[in-house]
Structure formats: C-alpha cells, structure tokens
C-alpha cells in the first residue's frame, strides 16, 4: 500500500488520540504505518509541520461540526449547541485537541485563519441575540474563555462521565448567558 500525506496525517491523528500528543514521534508514526522513519520525509517537512497539519485538519473538522449543529438555530440555543459540540470533539479526539491547543501557540497564518472561522461563528451567534453590538468582542471573549476553560479543565472527567460533563457545560453556558443578557440586553 502506498503511503500518502493524508495517510500520514491520519495515522498521526489516530496515534495522538490513542496515546496522547506527548507520545507522538516520527518513529511512532512510521511504526503505525509500517514504514521506515526516513520515508515520512517524502510527505512532511518535520514533526512540527506534521503536528500543524493534524491541528489544522482537526480545527477544520471541529469548525464544520459546530457549524452543522448551529444550522437553523440562533441565539442561546445555538451558542449552547456549539459549546457542547466543541466538548464532544475534545472527547472524541483528545490528542488532536491537544495538537490544536499546541498549534494556537505555535501556528501560522493558516492556523489564525482557521481559528478566526471559529470566532466568526460565535460572533454571528452572539449578534443573533440582539445584544449591545459594541460589547460583542467582550461577550466573545467570555464565551470562548468559558468554553475552552471548562472543556480543558474537564478533559479527564469527560472520558469517564461524558453525559455529566455535557450537562454541566450546558448549565455553565446557561448561567453565563443569563448574566450576559442581563448586562448587555
């Protein structure tokens, strides 16, 4: 079977999800693909480059999933659904989620562009709530901080009790939105 760049990225993503990002190495990826490590350089420049590819694919997939759950929804309902889908992605792809977090600090312009798509989705949903438009960025920062912070803090618990963590995130978002609507309506 011929190895492709897509196969290398998929194997790396799977390895990260199975073993954690700290256990991803070019040697481990090559072993997963049953090839020699030097053969990887036919498809990638470096481990960092590969991790960026994994992160970018993950970010695009996560964005697409969040957009799908938001279709036809607005306001509080859409924000809550997008927040839970963010958590769902982390539960299903913990290693890729780690790569995404790494990429936010080590990324490129492409990373920023993909991340801005996520921010644009949330901005659109915030603006669908008819809140004070001048406070959109402030509200966006509160929402992203809550979603990312809660999800990251619950990483371990989300695997042992995913339904409980989903419920608790929904409650946290509801509580945040009550305060936001009270202050910015």
UniProtKB/TrEMBL annotation:
- For this protein, the parts annotated as crossing the membrane are none
Residues annotated as DNA-binding are 25-44
Q: Which residues form a coiled coil?
A: none
Give the HTH tetR-type domain ranges: 2-62
Supply the alphabetized keyword list. DNA-binding, Transcription, Transcription regulation
SUPFAM superfamilies linked? Homeodomain-like (SSF46689), Tetracyclin repressor-like, C-terminal domain (SSF48498)
Q: Name one GO molecular function term.
A: DNA binding
Q: Which domain of life is it from?
A: Bacteria
Tell me yes or no: is Lyase among this UniProt entry's keywords: no
- The protein, known as: TetR family transcriptional regulator
* Native source organism of the sequence: Longicatena caecimuris
